[in-house]
Structures are given as structure tokens and as C-alpha cells.
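We close this part of the discussion by returning to an individual protein. The sequence in question and its C-alpha cells are set out directly beneath this paragraph:
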Amino acid sequence: MLNWDFYKPTELEKRINAHYSSIGIESPKDLREELIASLLDIKLRYEDAPSLSYEKGNYRCIVIDNTLPADEQRKHFFHELGHLFRGHSGDQSRFPDLFKDLLEEQAEHFAKYAMMPFNMIQALPLPEFERDFPYIIASEFRVPLSLAMERWDQIKRRISAGRWEQTCIERERSRYRKADPANWCDDAKKMFRLAIDGKMRKGQGVIIR
């Protein structure tokens, strides 16, 4: 049984969710390219040309390659939106290859979170069998099944990591509770006092830190 509480959104996810909330994007049906572009005052064009994003001053534009399949166009839109969201302005063709790779990776991370926000996934009804959940994600968010499965695997890994972290925290708390004399049983306290008395009689003294 999944425990959503163990999932910890990244700072990027938190920023995306806050931005969506500020413009009224609250459910999968709101994640429409034209609507988002309109709410963010971004000029959206579909052309027989490579997808790209452009920003100069207050003018922002996204061009999507209209020769691509619909689901690829959708992926390209959120990828290019990621470039604008993260401030990747300028002529990237002049950037070093490693830096361009970094910008592309950042835009891909953004697209995955922006297309399938965790808070919206969490609100979906859980199917009888967990293995069917990626199909629901793919259908609700209109993304390829492969991308939905990738996001679902990521979420499960985060939940597992959060559960393990909580287990470690509880284990450490338990160790400190057991080490605190205030939590000892009466017999343990008596034995401890007897040990101290014995050392004092021998003139050794006791230092308690």
C-alpha cells in the first residue's frame, strides 16, 4: 500500500505547483498548451519548423513543430516552457556543448514535473492493481505510456527513499531515548547508581557529559 506522505517534492516541483496555483491550473484538464500559454502571456505558434522558445524583454514565444505527432508536440511545448521558466535565454548555439546538455536536462526535468504534477497524480483514484496506475496517468495527462511509467517509477522510488529516511530517523530517536537515563527502568537506574557509588568509594570519580 502506497503512503503518499513519504514523497518529498523537489524545489523545482514546489515552484511549478506554486506557479500553477497562482494562475488557476488545478487539475489535469487544465494542463492545455493553449490555456497555459495564454495565462502566462506567451505567444504560441505551430509551424513547419523545429520547436524553440524565445524571450526578449516582455515578449515570450514558443514555436512547436506541427509535423510531429500530437503527444510529441505536447512534450515539446512543456520542454520549451521549461526553458522559459528557468530563464534559459540567449542563443544556445553559441554555448559550450556541456552547458547546452545541462540546459536540456533541466528543461526535461521541468517538462516531466509540469506535465504530471505530483499533487494532481495524488488526487487520482487508485486502481485495484498498482501496475495499472501508469495507464491512468497516461490517459488523464495525455502523455505517452512510456513517459507515464517513467514518472510513476520515479514517484515510487521517492516514496521508498522517504520511507527509508523515516525509518532511520525513528531508529536514531529510539537509540537516544534508550540512552537517556530519564527513560530507563527502575532496575537500570538502581544498577547505574550502584556503579557510581562503587567508583566513588574507590576514589575514581565519575564524569557525566
In short: The first strand starts at residue 43 and ends at 47.
